[in-house]
Amino acid sequence: MSGIRLENVFKAYGDATVVRDLSLTIPQGEFFTLLGPSGSGKTTTLSIIAGFTMADRGRVFINGRDATRAEPRERGLGMVFQNYAIFPHLNVFENVAFPLTVKKVPKVEIAKRVADALEMVKLTGFERRYARQLSGGQQQRVALARAIVAHPPIVLMDEPLGALDKNLRYHMQMEIKEISTRLGMTVVYVTHDQEEALTMSDRIAIMNGGVIAQMGPPREVYERPQSAFVAKFLGEADLIRVERQSGCLVGPGSLPVRAGEDNGSLQKGQLFLRPEKVTLCDPGTGEAGCTLRGKVHQVAFLGNVIRFEVELEDGTIILSDVANAAGIKNFPVGAAVDVTWLPEHARLLED
Ligand SMILES: Nc1ncnc2c1ncn2[C@@H]1O[C@H](COP(=O)(O)OP(=O)(O)OP(=O)(O)O)[C@@H](O)[C@H]1O
């Protein structure tokens, strides 16, 4: 089997468990992202795949071979690590050419491949420069070009765009995605930027405390989080306390609330909604069962979106994001409103 497989990988430093019996399979050609807060074990997991860190227990398979004890250079992986600096004694051309030079690729082929890679990272014309003559972001792009120039089947990337400004970052996201798809590369990508993870990945694993809290395609983890942690980590989340009374779910103000997949088992928990799925209307006009009462607490202008903060009767603050389109209805601070949603957009989460 090609791709990557981890089996019960465990790593601790002293008393601190950093990766806890992690098992996962990443098929060849998948863009797979490890996303999570600082210290959740993303880099350690990537480093175990790379061979820089040895797991205490468990096994690592790369392209069907047991690579648990293999040296990093035996694993045939392309890598861009946070601190994986470019060689200071080589210029940009020589740095990018390095993986091809060691493979003894013909000079003409090297020149072409390096030119393509440098064009991708927008560094054409920088060939003769050395690391000390480049900014942090430029060095990062050289490292990226070097990682993919040999078209390795698997590339590991740890925050490779961290030092770039917003526009270049977006351009590079698109380029990395395009080239990995075109070459059928498997990419294991580490980031703590949820937007980047949603944009680029085929599948995302959200890590928390050394375990995978949830794993799935971007849309699924965003729209169907299984816990409040995942809901909150992947963007803004509205969470409303609910409990069952005489078989019916009720929210603040004892008003009945409905969620799409309520099988009647949850007694107490939270109703989850994304702010863009929450709408506001005049008091008394919302449909019973998916309406709560509130008061506009704040209005924020975010450019393409207007964000209303609404305070419910129990003090919970709910966000409602409305596209800044022609003719949108404005609700001023202090206005009484109904907060409404479609039941299929609401999910019930256990505490
Ligand atoms: N060599 C080490 N010795 C001791 N503790 C370590 C070592 N490497 C990592 N850790 C600890 O392991 C935990 C997980 O670290 P890791 O770098 O994998 O997290 P991360 O999710 O990648 O975080 P970040 O987004 O900040 O890079 C952290 O608490 C870190 O301090």
From TrEMBL:
<keyword id="KW-1003">Cell membrane</keyword>
<keyword id="KW-0472">Membrane</keyword>
<dbReference type="Pfam" id="PF00005">
    <property type="entry name" value="ABC_tran"/>
</dbReference>
<dbReference type="InterPro" id="IPR017871">
    <property type="entry name" value="ABC_transporter-like_CS"/>
</dbReference>
<dbReference type="GO" id="GO:0015417">
    <property type="term" value="F:ABC-type polyamine transporter activity"/>
</dbReference>
<dbReference type="InterPro" id="IPR003439">
    <property type="entry name" value="ABC_transporter-like_ATP-bd"/>
</dbReference>
<feature type="domain" description="ABC transporter">
    <location>
        <begin position="4"/>
        <end position="234"/>
    </location>
</feature>
<dbReference type="InterPro" id="IPR003593">
    <property type="entry name" value="AAA+_ATPase"/>
</dbReference>
<keyword id="KW-0067">ATP-binding</keyword>
<keyword id="KW-1278">Translocase</keyword>
<keyword id="KW-0547">Nucleotide-binding</keyword>
<dbReference type="GO" id="GO:0005524">
    <property type="term" value="F:ATP binding"/>
</dbReference>
<keyword id="KW-0813">Transport</keyword>
<dbReference type="InterPro" id="IPR008995">
    <property type="entry name" value="Mo/tungstate-bd_C_term_dom"/>
</dbReference>
<comment type="function">
    <text>Part of the ABC transporter complex PotABCD involved in spermidine/putrescine import. Responsible for energy coupling to the transport system.</text>
</comment>
<comment type="subunit">
    <text>The complex is composed of two ATP-binding proteins (PotA), two transmembrane proteins (PotB and PotC) and a solute-binding protein (PotD).</text>
</comment>
<dbReference type="InterPro" id="IPR005893">
    <property type="entry name" value="PotA-like"/>
</dbReference>
<comment type="similarity">
    <text>Belongs to the ABC transporter superfamily. Spermidine/putrescine importer (TC 3.A.1.11.1) family.</text>
</comment>
<dbReference type="GO" id="GO:0016887">
    <property type="term" value="F:ATP hydrolysis activity"/>
</dbReference>
<protein>
    <recommendedName>
        <fullName>Spermidine/putrescine import ATP-binding protein PotA</fullName>
        <ecNumber>7.6.2.11</ecNumber>
    </recommendedName>
</protein>
<dbReference type="InterPro" id="IPR013611">
    <property type="entry name" value="Transp-assoc_OB_typ2"/>
</dbReference>
<dbReference type="GO" id="GO:0043190">
    <property type="term" value="C:ATP-binding cassette (ABC) transporter complex"/>
</dbReference>
<dbReference type="InterPro" id="IPR027417">
    <property type="entry name" value="P-loop_NTPase"/>
</dbReference>
<dbReference type="Pfam" id="PF08402">
    <property type="entry name" value="TOBE_2"/>
</dbReference>
<dbReference type="InterPro" id="IPR050093">
    <property type="entry name" value="ABC_SmlMolc_Importer"/>
</dbReference>
